[in-house]
Amino acid sequence: MLFATPQRRSNSRWKIFAYALAMNYVLGFDGGGTKTECVLMDPTGKILARSFSGPSNPSRIGAESAAREIEKAADLCLKEVGAARHEIVALGAGLAGTSDPGRKEKMRAALAAAFPGAVVNIFTDLEMALAAAGEGQVIVLVAGTGSAAIGRDAQGQIWRTGGYGPLHSDDGSAYDIGSRAVARAMKERELREADSSLGKAILEQLGHTSWPDLRQRAMQQPDSVFPLVFPVVVAAADEGDTAARGILVRAAQELASLVQAVAEHGAYGREETLIAKTGGTVGRSTFFDAQLDAALKLVLPQARIGGLRMSPAEAAARAARH
Predict the structure, then answer these.
(1) Strand locations in the chain (E)
(2) Separation CA 85–CA 73 (nearest Å)
(3) How many CB atoms are closer than 10 A to CB 38?
(4) Hey, which residues does 39 pair with through a beta bridge?
């Protein structure tokens, strides 16, 4: 009979432990009105894979559709490393549109069913953006499909504003910019009986040849129209289009007003405050970035302007991991 020596037993136990540890993957998500980012993290906190899918804001597309996009992004990451869903022990999802408790619970239930055995944590996108900014005194400006700001002062007090959807907020967002650009282009068409260069670019971007067709689409599915106009506007602005530049100057001022609203409600030492910009409209246009920075400097002249220390998806994974 062959008996295991203490060394053999120790090695065997270590192999079993290491194998079990290797299976403890964690997923993190950052979901908004345009896209979803996913990161897959190992037990040591190392990111093994990153993927993207479509929008996962349940207030805009519903909980079922949002959950499907999250699953799609997760499966892309898992496929990249050759892992399966049952190897996920925890996931964190920072999602726009989950400040409502009922909607948040629907998302938690949907993801718990999709990832059985995993501990599911649902956060708002603003909570994870703030976590991604790191410690200390900071105001995070989220400028994507929607818009919002959230801040933490030196005493740890947190204040937020915006982020309640296009009917109640989202000033200066991609949705807002696109909406204003379409309205401007349609008005110019009526006055001149000819499309402006911006109007022609908008129609081409959205695959339409006439404004009545586009107007009908915008009434039925506004999210499939207005955010998609944003790239056209910033491209035109960078080329010197006066109308596009006017729209972006106003958007920059409205975004800066969100930061100002947060700053006025907290004990922010001006020299020590970081304004961290994030979202799909940031870094897309030389003109818009310059206008936004200038508007922010008017609000908090001595603040530092920068970005997040990590992606909100990574922050969500780390929050779930702990």
Answers:
(1) 25-31, 36-41, 47-53, 88-95, 119-124, 138-143, 147-152, 158-162, 274-278, 304-306
(2) 12
(3) 30
(4) 28, 50
Return left, alpha or beta for 247; rule: phi > 0 is left, psi -120 to 50 is alpha, else beta: alpha
Q: b vs e for 192-216, b when ≥16 Cβ sit within 10 Å of the residue's Cβ? A: eeebbebbebbbebbebeebeebee
Residue type present at position 204: E
CA distance 275 to 255: 12
Query: 91: helix, coil or strand?
Result: strand
3-class SS at 38?
strand
Q: Within a 13 Å sphere around the CA of 178, how many CA atoms are in the beta-carbon half?
A: 27
DSSP structure class, residue 272:
G
| pLDDT in single tens digits along all 322 residues of the chain | 333 444 444 455 544 444 444 458 999 999 998 999 999 999 899 999 999 999 999 999 999 999 999 999 999 999 999 999 999 999 999 999 999 999 999 999 999 999 999 999 999 999 999 999 999 899 999 999 999 999 998 888 999 999 888 877 899 999 999 999 999 999 999 999 999 999 999 999 999 999 999 999 999 999 999 999 999 999 999 999 999 999 999 999 999 999 999 998 876 666 679 999 999 999 999 999 999 999 999 999 989 999 999 999 999 999 998 8
Q: How far apart are CA 310 and CA 65, in angstroms?
A: 27
What distance in Å separates the CA atoms of residue 217 and residue 206, rounded to the nearest whole number? 10
pTM, 2 dp: 0.87
